[in-house]
Amino acid sequence: MGALVQQMENSAKRIDQLQDDFSTMTKHATELQTYIGLREIEKSTSQEANYLDELVSGSQLNDVEITVSSTVKSVLQDIKSFGNISVKSSTKTFQTKIGRKDQAQHLVPMVYGIEQIKPSLLNSLSVPKGDSLKRITGQILPDGMLLLFHNKKNTLIQYNSDGTFMKELMAFKEQPYDVCFVKDNTVAVTFNHATKVLLVDVEKNQLIKTIELALYCYGVSSDGEVLVISHKEARKTTILNLTDMTEEILEGIRLHRISLFNGNIYGTYYYEDRVDCYRITGEHVWTFTHEDIYQPEGIAVDMNGFVYITSLGKNKIVVLSSDGKSSRTVLCKEDGIMEPYAIDINKELRTMMVACVDGKTCAFIFKI
User: pLDDT value at position 43?
Assistant: First the structure.
């Protein structure tokens, strides 16, 4: 019985380890790594399930009652036999719940195909009275609050998640080019024809840090650990470590707007009507061109790895598969999309902001 208990404890430890491995994998692994990892986990869980099945179907878990004859007590007397030992077996009195039935396929949330992507309008943001915005950039914060740049006034504007205007925040000397959320309440801002990036605390409405670089800075994106800045004119991209502020320059990457996701840098190049994907180490992965992608500007990646592009010259929002092999137009002029310039996606809230340039409605908020 002691050996049996030890075996079951070892099995429980292995199952706990599989659960920890699965949790870590879903947080950090790519889709391909997750798929391969699940196959390995399935093999191990099958072995543990078979072990439990054998315990249930066998007699190892049956209750055992041992009855010793009173004759054994006369061991010091003149006896010819120790007596009889009878073993009485009864059915087990506990229940097991294995719950397998090939459930590994249900452990990963359902991921929709590109054909199932259908954004639905939640809210729209109106231009403050008397204003006319051009080339708007914006960002959805983790709490759903919205940030847009008034490029005429060089002012950061804050909106509620329902699209209502809140207030004007910090004003800048230069014209902002791009903005991205970094972490906590911090956003990073780049400027037209400027060799610097500003880190701004939007809650306290104050400048945290000015990062001086050697090249003009354009598109910017972050995962909270690094800051990726494009230098389109120099055909370079900077990877800035936010912990020790060390820089790594990737050569030969010419992008306007960029989006960082799962170790990949996705970017648009306006003048050649193309979208590119690079590894964060600099290796080129794919290039995508299509007749629906004309004068592409904004770019964002959703929770499933689909890449969203603002096709400024076609008044469309085009979605690409993560491998860059297929595309589909999901929003167009009939949906109110006129000259879409910037785009951002909040992966947790599953919301998307599209900033347009039509003089009346400056941005739309969609559920994706």
Answer: 78
Contact of 296 with 310, CB cutoff 8 Å:
yes
- Residue, of 94 and 203, whose pLDDT is higher: 203
Question: For 97-107, what is each residue's pLDDT tens digit?
Answer: 555 555 545 44
Burial class (CB in 10 A: 0-12, 13-18, 19+), 270: middle
User: Which CA distances in Å does 270 have to 86, 220, 222, 237, 294?
Assistant: 88, 16, 21, 16, 8
Q: pLDDT category, 291, cuts 50, 70, 90?
A: very high
Q: Which helix (H) or strand (E) holds 57?
A: helix 31-57
Quote the CA–CA distance of 257 and 46 in Å, as a whole number.
47
Share of the chain above pLDDT 70, in %: 82
Q: Are 323 and 346 in contact (CB under 8 A)?
A: no
pLDDT digits (tens, 9 = 90+) for 214-235: 999 999 999 999 999 999 999 9
Per-domain residue ranges of the chain: 2-91+102-106, 116-367
Q: Which long-range contacts (CB under 8 A, 24 or more apart) does 2-10 make?
A: 4/60, 8/55
Give the bridge partners for 126, in sequence order.
Answer: 361
> For 102, which DSSP code?
S
- The values of phi and psi at residue 56, to 5°, are -70, -45
Across the range 9-37, mean pLDDT stands at 81
Q: How far is CA 262 from CA 172, 303, 330, 340, in A?
A: 32, 10, 23, 26
Domain 116-367 CATH (choose: 3.65.10.10, 2.120.10.30, 3.30.460.10, 3.20.20.70): 2.120.10.30
